[in-house]
Amino acid sequence: MDPELDPLWQHLDWAIGQMLIMGWDGTEVTPQIRNLIEQHHLGSILLTAKNLKSAQQTARLVQELQTIAHRAGHPQPLLIAVDQENGGVNSLYDEDYICQFPSAMGQAAAGNAELAYKVAKATATEVSAVGVNLILGPVLDVLTNARYQPLGVRATGDDPQEVSQYGIAAMNGYKDAGVATCGKHFPSYGNLDFLGSSLDIPIITQTLEELSLSSLVPFRNAIATGKLDAMFVGGCGITNPSMSVNHACLSDQVVDDLLRNELGFQGVAISECLEMEGLRNEIGVKTGTVMAVEAGCDLVMLCRAYDVQLEAISGLKLGVENELLTKERIYTSLKRVLRLKKSCTSWPKALNPPGINLLSKIHPSHLALSLKAYEDSISVIRDTEKLLPLTNSMHQEEELLLLTPLVRPLPASSMSKALVEAKSKSDTPTLHDKWAHRDQRSIMSGEGVFREMGRSLARARHGKLLHTSYTANGVRPVHENLINRASCIIIVTADANRNLYQAGFTKHVSMMCSMLRASGQKKSLIVVAVSSPYDFAMDKSIGTYICTFDFTETAMAALVRALCGKFKLQGTLPGTLRKSRKVQKSRQHWLVEAYNRDRDAGGLDDLLQALARASAPAHQFLQTTGAHTFELFNPNIEEAHFVVRNSSTQALYGFCATYFVQGTGIIGAIFVDPSKRNVSIGRSLHRRALRGLAQKRGIKRIQLGMSFPGVFLGIPTDDNASLRQWFSNGGWDLQFPRRLANMSITPLSSWSAPEGLLQCIQRAGISFDLIHGPDNAESVLAHVRTHANPEVFELYRFALQEVNNKTCGVVRAKGHAESLLGTVIICSPGSSLAGFIPALHSPPAEPDEMIGGIVAPVMVPATAQGSLVLQGLALMGLRQNKAHKAVRSVLSWVLDEAVEPMLAMGFDVVQAFEEFTNSPENWQDLA
């Protein structure tokens, strides 16, 4: 028996029960599921759409399940898992309390990873309110064969780095809402072959090398964050020269070797549901369950059949008796599962979920987020004839024709819920369909969703709308008559690549419209793909093409608003399709010259003022930035600045500042005249800057963002996602940012320290002193050299050189035995350091405002007292600023994890940035 474990677990029945995750059909607790929890100690439950009717019913159901487990003596609560991916895959739908958000690909189309984080956090907060503690997500699959894969819009796209970025954003959102995460579907469902298997399962035919370069990248990156709690291992086969596996989740080559040993995953491995027909027929559930655990899975999934679930339990017991499974192997999985439970639940939390009370409070803000997410995601891929919005291309009295396919509704829709009881048994899904949503499938006609969309569109444009459906029967006389009447036709397609009749119908109507236009009639055509954007992405004969990425009622309502011009459409195609479109644009190549102070300083001042006028309010500090800000004249920092200019007028069109210090090359700023954007000026500057840095002798890393000078500490987080995408297209890996924020307190005169803060600092034995000049600075500089970037070290050296007027000093925080815990620079109003940190300058609108600075806190990392030390340093700084009559105190900068303690002190965030550091190898082609 492992000494770390509760003695209860020496009963192997208890341990085995914790290694299974099971579900059932029905919206109430059945005797069977009760028996599994009470008698077989089942530790994890999978809830699907078949269990969940509403938020209120879900909360009651989960509470009942947890109460049964508690009364049965379970030491820890049940894991309660759901698929809640948004888009078309939601186990829980309740239009009164649970918000609908776009699919993963739709969120990526919005081009904003921060939005994806907020959506994930909102989703997890909602399901957590009803007692769910594990989301089976995010989807980390890369659609390496995007057009014909059943995952479709459930995946982010076909670019491994973009999938990583959005997957990690979603994972962080789930975690910050207190819900555990489970990446899926390892090793990949992004390129499945449905033709080559003798079993009733698809297979992966890529080699391990090919997988490593594409499909495995998001899994590797998610694991590297240390925040991925579990991994769902798929049931697909793998056939390549180095591996032949019938079911990935039953193979130690996949789970133990690839997932654990090669990728370093230490969390819980969850198997695909072992009730799948191919596995049951070939191996049998008893043997399959043992094989899954032998392979390295910690939780074995059995979705609904009670007799099969009992068979799996007896299989594990028999595996131990036959010595196929050792107790050590059982306890290894047990400890992983218990560690996961401890991270996401507890008995007080499990038995008392906040339920409807919380959902009612957060619903309005989540609805607003849903509205923004859908509006940002809708993408116009082409509009060559300028048909959008409809108000620009149609008169109100003209007739609009809507043609929609007969398709199944998405489970995340009220219509699907209303009709699920009356479902028909006539449909026989293909193998491909089974892998598209499996348990999430609904088989009712989706006509009602589109009918409501038609009514909404007619109301919104205050005009006549004709609407009919189309099927595999093609263009019928009824369609021809309506096409002849209408001046504009909207055709909706849903996965036309897999439903080829839709592609054929659309092409036929397109040809008809062309012929009618040639005869002088007005016949506009708009095609809307309401699922996969790949339907007509590359077909230029479709001149106006829009994508919505799902067809829930929420998505269709947003589409109506988009067609009627209610908001600006800004979504883009996912992954490589987006990049290929950008590459196709004609690009100018601009001459880039070295910055010359005498020639260019005036032009740079003018450029900065133009930027200040065009910037968001949070960046108005550009008004106080001048050409002098970027020149450090520091013997320890090499500077090389570049410009694109009009040699005839001397106007600067763009400027880029670069620095090199102790092996680190830095882009400290890159600006383009707002009136000269999208003509490759920034790209030309960026390439020249990177080429210069990559050629530096001893270069170890290249950094985007700089705190000395502190104009831009990185990519501003409140800018739109196009800026991040711009840098990503320029070769930057933007997965792991270092988040920094400038904060301030104003008015400083009325500020007072939080009650009890000083006493807490004193009890912790933390003391502070203030030093000026280099005489006593050895310990400070040694501390900063160890714990901060090289430019921060130079910032401290600069501050400590101000000896005569003492406008700058350094506060030291000390612990027991005079050990240094942290430092911060204090600036009086008017400090020469303010010349390099615009946030410390008074804005032109308030020239007499005195601003004090608290600059560059440097802490010993991972100490228990870290927040208290930082608060103490800030407190000392605020006292100094007050003593020097400062009206406002600016804290530049704090790391993301330290923002909360500063907010508690009364600081507000003014700007937030993301600093990135990459290897020079990213741009080795430029060196």
UniProtKB/TrEMBL annotation:
Protein origin, superkingdom: Eukaryota
Any one GO molecular function term: hydrolase activity, hydrolyzing O-glycosyl compounds
Keywords: Glycoprotein, Glycosidase, Hydrolase
InterPro entries for this protein: Acyl_CoA_acyltransferase, GH, Glyco_hydro_3_C_sf, Glyco_hydro_3_N, Glyco_hydro_3_N_sf, NagZ_Beta-hexosaminidase
Pfam families for this protein: Glyco_hydro_3
Domain spans labelled Glycoside hydrolase family 3 N-terminal: 13-340
Gene Ontology BP term (one): carbohydrate metabolic process
Similarity remark: Belongs to the glycosyl hydrolase 3 family.
PANTHER family: BETA-HEXOSAMINIDASE-RELATED, PUTATIVE (AFU_ORTHOLOGUE AFUA_8G04060)-RELATED
Name of this chain's protein: Glycoside hydrolase family 3 protein
Organism: Parathielavia appendiculata
